[in-house]
C-alpha cells in the first residue's frame, strides 16, 4: 500500500481527492491537512510515502512545504497539484525538487497514476506543460527581487515590505524600480501582473 498525505485547504476539493484515492486498492490516505504549516509534522507521524500538495495553501505555500519535506524527510515523495498550468509555476516546482506536477483539471485516473509513479521514483509531469516550460524564458528577477515583489503583491506598503524583508525603505523602492524596468512593466501593479502570469510569484 502507498501511504498518502493530502494537503488541500478547500474542504470540498480535499474530500473529493481523498475519495478518489480511496477507490484505489493500492493507495491508503493516512493524513489530511488544510495548511502548509501542518504538512511536515503530519507526514512524519503518519509515515507518509507520497504527499499530494496543493500549490496555494495558507501558511506555508505548497512549494515551500515541498522543499521542507525534501530537506527533512527525503524519503517522502511530493506531487504538486495546481489550477495554474503556467510554465513558470512548473519551473518553480522543479526547482523545489518536487517529484510530480499535476493540473487539478486532469482526469481522475491521472491522479492515482501520478501517485504510483512518484512512489516508484519516477518524475511525473504533464507532457505539454513540460514542453512549454522548456521553451519559456527564465525569470529575469533575482530571488531578493522576487521576495520584494511577492510581499508587494500581498498588498503591503513600502514600510511593511522593508520591515518584513529586513531592508531599508529606500532599498525596497530601488528594488521595485529595477523590477519594473526588468519586466518592461508600466508600474509595479503591471509588474505584479506580469510576474503572476509567468508563474514567477
CATH architecture of the largest domain: 3-Layer(aba) Sandwich
The helix-and-strand class reads: alpha/beta
**Helix and strand sequence:** EHEHEHEHEHEHHHHH
What is the number of domains?
2
**Biggest sheet layout:** 6 strands, parallel
Helical segment count: 10
CATH topology of the largest domain, what is it called?
Rossmann fold
Q: In percent terms, what proportion of residues is strand?
A: 5-15%
CATH class of the largest domain: Alpha Beta
Percent range for helical residues?
Answer: 40-55%
Mean pLDDT: 89
Morphology: elongated
Largest sheet strand order: 2-1-3-4-5-6
Low-pLDDT runs of 5+ residues are none
Q: What is the number of E strands?
A: 6
Question: What distance lies between the first and last C-alpha atoms, to the nearest angstrom?
Answer: 36 Å
CATH level-4 homologous superfamily of the largest domain: Response regulator
Radius of gyration: 18 Å
GO biological process, one term: regulation of DNA-templated transcription
Pfam families: GerE (PF00196), Response_reg (PF00072)
GO molecular function: DNA binding
Organism: Amycolatopsis orientalis (Nocardia orientalis)
Amino acid at each position: 500500500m502507498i501511504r498518502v498525505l493530502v494537503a488541500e485547504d478547500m474542504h470540498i476539493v480535499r474530500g473529493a481527492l481523498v475519495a478518489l484515492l480511496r477507490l484505489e486498492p493500492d493507495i491508503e490516505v493516512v493524513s489530511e491537512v488544510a495548511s502548509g504549516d501542518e504538512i511536515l509534522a503530519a507526514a512524519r507521524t503518519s509515515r507518509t510515502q507520497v504527499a499530494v500538495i496543493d500549490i496555494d495553501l495558507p501558511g506555508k505555500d505548497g512549494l515551500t512545504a515541498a522543499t521542507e519535506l525534501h530537506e527533512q524527510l527525503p524519503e517522502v515523495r511530493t506531487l504538486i497539484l495546481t489550477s495554474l498550468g503556467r510554465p513558470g509555476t512548473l519551473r518553480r516546482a522543479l526547482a523545489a525538487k518536487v517529484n510530480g506536477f499535476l493540473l487539478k483539471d486532469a482526469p481522475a485516473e491521472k491522479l492515482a497514476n501520478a501517485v504510483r509513479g512518484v512512489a516508484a521514483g519516477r518524475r511525473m509531469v504533464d507532457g505539454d506543460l513540460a514542453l512549454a516550460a522548456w521553451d519559456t524564458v527564465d525569470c529575469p528577477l533575482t530571488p531578493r527581487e522576487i521576495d520584494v515583489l511577492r510581499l508587494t503583491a500581498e498588498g503591503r506598503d513600502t514600510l511593511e515590505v522593508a520591515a518584513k524583508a529586513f531592508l531599508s525603505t529606500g532599498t525596497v523602492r530601488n528594488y521595485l524600480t529595477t523590477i519594473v524596468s526588468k519586466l518592461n512593466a508600466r508600474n509595479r501593479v503591471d509588474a505584479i501582473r506580469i510576474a503572476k502570469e509567468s508563474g514567477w510569484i
